[in-house]
Amino acid sequence: MPGYNKHRIFNYIVFIVVALILYFENIFSFSSGMLLAICLGFYIGTEFVTPDLDVDSAAYKRWGRLKILMLPYKWLFKHRQSSHNIFYGAIVRILYISVIILGFYYLIFKSLPQEFTFSYVYVIVFLIGIIIANALHVILDKIF
Fold it and tell me: Global pTM?
């Protein structure tokens, strides 16, 4: 099994290479906001919301004191089973963490001025970044 750093290096190299190909071949272009959203999602998916949250991994420990929020996830999911499913695993982790984040979201955005607008397209692009990072993790596990 590839270690945590191998997963990170693999994810970042593939992401950068694909992004450069898409940019230089003019296949797809992002606005600066969308680029930031997908990069942030990919970073979060690579560093924090990985398929290895169900074990005492580096990603799990990276949560620091907030790792207590991951305990129910660790209890519910067995390592290398549903958590390592290329589609289901990422979606379950996103939904699990979304429940936690919704509380913070409510507190943060209820305190913002009413004129503040937020495009949900950025949220979707952010989630796509997480899903891509998780898919690369699972692919690397299947290769080795």
Answer: 0.84
